[in-house]
């Protein structure tokens, strides 16, 4: 048995995972727009990506590219979940997805001080800082519906 066989799920359906990732990213995006309004913290993943692409200037041409990257990231996460991670989480599919969504943000949160230090839009106060408790809780709230949706939609059985 090769290392790949140990790492990859025996039943992985990339097409199903991609569709689940697209829908989960749509749900995430709706949650993102809603929580900006509810919390008053206007951190946007799309604006964050636009800033990485275009620097300090706001250029509309990068908005579509940022949305494409946002959805491609959601699909990539869904593929990682389906191919590798899902089988390591306990419980039903919805719980596995929820745990994945929350574990993802928790595992990467240590990088947020770098975003605050180097991202051009955060540095010049066009975007709020990311390394704050409110942003952390906001990201947990965004990734929960992503993970729930992913867990409910992706089925690795016929």
Q: Distance N terminus to C terminus? A: 25 Å
| Helix percentage | over 70%
Biggest sheet details: none
What is the subunit organization of this protein?
A: single chain
- Gyration radius (Cα, Å) is 17 Å
Total DSSP helices: 8
Number of domains: 1
Report the order of strands and helices. Answer: HHHHHHHH
Q: Which percent band covers the strand fraction? A: under 5%
The chain-level structural class is: mainly alpha
Number of strands: 0
Instruction: Provide mean pLDDT, rounded.
Output: 90
- Characterize the overall form: globular
Question: How does this structure look, described?
Answer:
The chain has 158 residues and is an all-alpha fold. It has one domain. 72% of the residues lie in helices and 0% in strands. It is built from 8 helices and no strands. Helix 2 crosses helix 4, helix 3 packs across helix 4 and helix 5 packs antiparallel against helix 8. The longest helix has 26 residues.
What's the gist of this structure?
The chain has helices at residues 3-7, 14-39, 45-54, 61-85, 93-108, 112-118, 120-123, 133-153.
Set out the fold topology.
Layout: H1 3-7, H2 14-39, H3 45-54, H4 61-85, H5 93-108, H6 112-118, H7 120-123, H8 133-153
Helix pairs in contact: 2-4, 2-8, 3-4, 5-8
């Amino acid at each position: 048995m090769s290392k790949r066989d140990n790492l990859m799920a025996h039943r992985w359906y990339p097409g199903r995972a991609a569709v689940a990732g697209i829908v989960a990213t749509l749900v995430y995006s709706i949650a993102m727009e809603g929580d900006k309004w509810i919390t008053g913290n206007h951190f946007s993943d799309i604006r964050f990506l636009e800033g990485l692409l275009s620097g300090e200037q706001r250029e509309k041409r990068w908005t579509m590219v940022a949305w494409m990257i946002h959805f491609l990231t959601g699909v990539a996460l869904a593929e990682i979940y389906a191919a590798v991670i899902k089988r390591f989480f306990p419980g039903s599919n919805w719980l596995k997805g929820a745990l994945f969504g929350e574990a993802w943000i928790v595992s990467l949160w240590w990088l947020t001080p770098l975003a605050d230090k180097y991202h051009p839009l955060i540095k010049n106060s066009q975007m709020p800082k990311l390394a704050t408790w409110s942003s952390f809780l906001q990201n947990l709230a965004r990734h929960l519906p992503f993970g729930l949706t992913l867990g409910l939609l992706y089925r690795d059985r016929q």
